[in-house]
Amino acid sequence: MTTPVSSHPTRMVFAPRGSTAEVETGAALAPKFDAAGTLAAVATDADTGEVLMLAWMNAKSLALTIATGEAHFYSRSRGKIWKKGEDSGNILNVVEMRTDCDQDAIWMRVRMNGLKAACHTGHRTCFYRRIPVGNKGGDTAPALEPAGTPLVFDPKDVYGQKG
After folding, report:
1. Domain boundaries, the chain
2. Per-residue model confidence (pLDDT) at position 4
């Protein structure tokens, strides 16, 4: 069964969830949204494989992403859809989208426009700090370490002063 799509990308109809076998091996896109109506979406650089960001999609943002080829997400904190790069110009053009076996996560291989930074902090990737591993516990939380990811832009120059 094909996934019907209306002329309006936010009204895309996804296939109903079938049996485990249908979901895992079938051709129908039948996303499994969580209780909040979202699923995780990971964006990686199409050329380098670097993980750029993880965000959340709801049915509308997933439909917009599929229809436009530009990454859209659902902001849980703001309660609204946002197009990545709508303010900064750092739009993520989707080269390929995949879903995992049970269709509750999305992986997008993307190419960035603009300043080529995925993170609102100005870093190329949102994953710009390391968590040291091997800490056997203790009385203090591990200190995050810089991962060597360059700062591509100053957020104040792009988004203005906040706070």
Report:
1. 36-122
2. 38
Distance CA 125, CA 26 (A): 33
Query: Tens digits of per-residue pLDDT, 87-118?
Result: 888 999 999 999 999 999 999 999 999 888 99
Report how far residue 107's alpha carbon sits from residue 42's, in angstroms, rounded to the nearest whole number: 5
CATH superfamily, with its number, for domain 36-122? Phosphoribosyl-AMP cyclohydrolase (3.10.20.810)
Count of all residues that appear for the chain in the document: 163
Q: Are 158 and 88 in contact (CB under 8 A)?
A: yes
pTM of the model: 0.86
d(CA 146, CA 48): 20
Query: Hey, what are 118's tokens?
Result: 């995925």
If you write DSSP's letter for every residue of 72-125 in order, what string do you get? EEEETTTTEEEETTTTTS--EEEEEEEE-TTSSEEEEEEEE-TTS--STTSBSS
Torsion, Cα of 52, 55, 60, 62 (10° steps): 40
Coil, helix or strand for 39? strand
The residue among 41, 108, 38 whose CA lies nearest residue 77 is 38
Q: How far is CA 40 from CA 1, 21, 145, in A?
A: 25, 22, 25
For residue 141, is pLDDT > 90?
A: no
